[in-house]
Amino acid sequence: MSPEELSKISGIELAPSHEGRVVYRCIGCGESFELENLLYTCPSCSSLLRIVDEKFDELKKRSGEEWRRVFDLRRSLDIDGLKGIFLFHELILPSVPLEDVVYLGEGHTPVIKANGELSEWLGEEFSIKNDGQNPSASFKDRGMASAISFLNNYIKTKNPEQVLGICASTGDTSAAAALYLSHLPKDAVKSVVLLPKGKVTPQQLAQPLSSGATVVEIPGVFDDCMKIVEQLAENYEVFLLNSKNPARICGQKSFAYETAQQLGWDTKGLVVAVPIGNAGNVTAIMEGFIDLKNLGVIEELPLILGVQSHHANPVAKWRDSGSYVPMTVEPSVAQAAMIGNPVSFPKVRGLVEDYFKDNFCAVTVTEQEIMDTMLHVNRHGHVVCTQGGEAVAGLKRALKEGRVPRGARYVTDSTSHQLKFAGFQDDYFAGKLEEGFGVRSREELINRPVGMEADAVRIAAGLGLKARAKG
């Protein structure tokens, strides 16, 4: 149905008309900068930037109830620019025209309720938002959809020479960046990703190669890759596609918008468990819920539960002690967790101090818990990755330790698809996980193929089947 037809029926104008005044805003000194240049840190004080709409308050001319109806009715429109995360156009990047939006099928991933057995194991009923159902099979597509739409508009309006899009990655970021960049004209954009050699699964390595990106492998871990791309972004004309780019965070806010919408816009007593990693996603999710609260779309901010591995948990330690100390990481099966100094931590700290003082907690889980939980959850009808296992394990631990209330509503974030991490499962089943993970294979979670002869009678006997009674 067209916007005009549906608007006539509903009595509400559904097509976006708010362009706002979108600028970079420094989280340190508060200075603002026009979007004329590609910026990632403040030119004045080097702090992180966020993208803000200086005319956001104009959106309050509509009531929260009316915004809920707008966002719900837009799901019926046949407009590519409003089908994905940009359904929430006014809250993502209102400065980007719909015709410049790059839509590859991202967003609106399902919130799946855990079955009775799994909920009993956890101790409460809960749901999993499966972001592995995005195009490149991870939540990173949310941020790439906004960042590449931003870049697409930038190229059309500024006519720069060929732009080099670049990111550091443990796998998912590179897959998403390469996929979305490949959608733009090849003469306008070149795609490069930096990966820590040997620290990315074969499935994740295959993705940017398939999309035609130049893949650079260097020794070390993600933090080492990030240092290099930060230097490149500071000294050369490149489009940085890590979460340090505020245009990416805009898109990742859509996780919050969608979760609220899928829960009927009722966030009372809601707990959202999120793997922390580089802290960009948890930052975006908090900002997204703040947007909805400011517009009156929701009444309460949820409690945000950040989860980290004991091999890389500076944010959890900060939340417990009040002191933030970067750390040297150890190997993690949740590869996106192997970050000892999350780039977006300053944003997390600011959001907690200003909005989530009593609504943010962080827990540490072991590598054993991450791996066992991933396998256990997937045995009960899900396809969560190791990071998804980390989120569920964190919720289970937080409930056990009394860090989150009982009887609430719980949504955990599974950031990517289980198949990206099938190698860890294979090694677990074979008892061959690297010693550095500190994970012991539990027999009850091991599943192997069973060889049998190509004979129905023998297979039936092996499966314990009983023949039907004749007559």
In oligomeric terms, what are we looking at? single chain
Q: Roughly how much helix do the residues carry, as a percent range?
A: 25-40%
Give average pLDDT, whole number: 94
Write the element-wise H/E pattern from the N-terminal end onward. Answer: HEEEHHEHEHEHEHEHEHHEHEHHEHHEHH
* Number of discrete helical segments: 17
Percent strand equals: 5-15%
Largest sheet: 6 strands, mixed
Give unreliable regions as ranges: none
Distance between the termini: 58 Å
Q: Report strand order across the widest sheet.
A: 4-5-13-10-11-12
CATH class category label of the domain at 111-135 and 249-445: Alpha Beta
What is the CATH fold-level name of the domain at 111-135 and 249-445?
Rossmann fold
Anisotropy-based shape = globular
- Proper CATH architecture of the domain at 111-135 and 249-445: 3-Layer(aba) Sandwich
Question: What is the CA-based Rg, rounded?
Answer: 23 Å
Structure description:
- The structure is a single chain.
- This protein is α/β, with parallel strands linked by helices.
- The chain has a domain at 111-135 and 249-445: Rossmann fold, CATH 3.40.50.
- It is 37% helix and 14% strand.
- It is built from 17 helices and 13 strands.
- It has helices at 3-10, 64-73, 89-92, 116-122, 140-158, 172-181, 202-210, 222-235, 246-252, 254-262, 280-294, 314-321, 345-354, 367-378, 386-400, 422-430, 456-463; strands at 22-26, 32-33, 49-53, 111-113, 127-130, 163-168, 189-196, 214-218, 238-240, 270-275, 303-309, 360-365, 409-414.
- The strands form 3 sheets. The chain has a 6-stranded mixed beta sheet with strand order 4-5-13-10-11-12, with helices on both faces. Strands 8-7-6-9 form a 4-stranded parallel beta sheet, with helices on both faces.
- Helix 10 packs across helix 11.
- The radius of gyration is 23 Å and the shape is globular.
- The mean pLDDT is 94.
